[in-house]
Target: LPS export ABC transporter permease LptG
Amino acid sequence: MRIYERYFARQIYLAFIFILFAFSGLFFFFDLINELNTVGHGNYKFTLAVLRVALQTPSRFYEIIPVAALISAIYVFAQMAAASEFTIFRVSGLSTGAALRSLLKIGVPMVLITYLIGEVVGPYTDQLSERVRLEALGSSVSSNFQSGVWVKDTLTAKENGEQVTRFVNVGTLNPDTTIANVRIYEFDSKFRLTNVRIAKSGVYEPPGHWKLTGVTDTQLNDAPPQAANPGDALNPVYRATQSTLPEYSLRSELTPQILSVLLVSPDRMSMFNLFRYIQHLTENHQDTQRYQIAFWRKILYPFAVFVMLILSLPFAYLHTRAGVVGMKVFGGIMIGMSFQLVNTLFSHIGNLNTWPAPITAAAPALAYLVIGLVGLKWVERH
Model:
């Protein structure tokens, strides 16, 4: 890097670290206040609430990094403009294009850190955070249905190669990914009910099997034709055979990673888990819109750092008479907050209107990129 690039990078990184930790500390305080309503229930103590909120900090970093990059760059450039440093750089031959390229170089480590936190650290600590809370409260994860979680599972039977469709009802999903109160309804390729299994509990045994305990297995077969009164409506159509098993190994495409989507929101999942869950939903002909938008947002969100840095560059061309440093930083905060608001709002609107997921995820960043380039062109001319 050139001398002026190192100077820019040092100033921006120092301001970035300070702002990142200042904002995360503010969010830590608000999150902790929100957790106080639960403290005292079960074994959920204040220290566990602090631990839970602390484990959520990496995800807060992930959300804050683009805004922190914007505010830090605006602060540094506003300081330079106030001291006429940036004017000296321009007189010395620093063009707008060169300054823009230097900013993008400075943004590369921030983008890499955002990817690292969003893909590795954040999803892991979020699941740990949720487990700390649930284990302390003695609770389990469930859906909004009173009967628990319903999941569709489709696979090919090894015996005859026919496609088997299961509807799995998990009454309780524990924080350690074990399941309880399980009911499995199995249908053949013609969607005729062939088997009903009820299990007290289950644990995953890789690869591709669930070990169920306390199983009641009801097998439904076609009843033999009745010799007498063949037209009688009361003649049995199916013959049920019930058996009780202490243990049963169930082959399934479902994994704890797929079920773990209930522990964290899609926006806080890793791209790998999102991709696998989208595949599972697609194979079972279920709606994937919400998860596709979350997946594309995970891909594109780190690049918002570049957009924020481009938005900050026009502030370097505004002299002191155009506004004090504090006002410029406040303007940067408002721009960053508006970006987060528009980004979140666009995801919900895209989900409701079934817009293509890549466009829904990329549109806010592209809009702010255009605003930044237009603003840069305007201040350069004036």
Summary: The mean pLDDT is 83. The chain is about 55% helix and 20% strand.
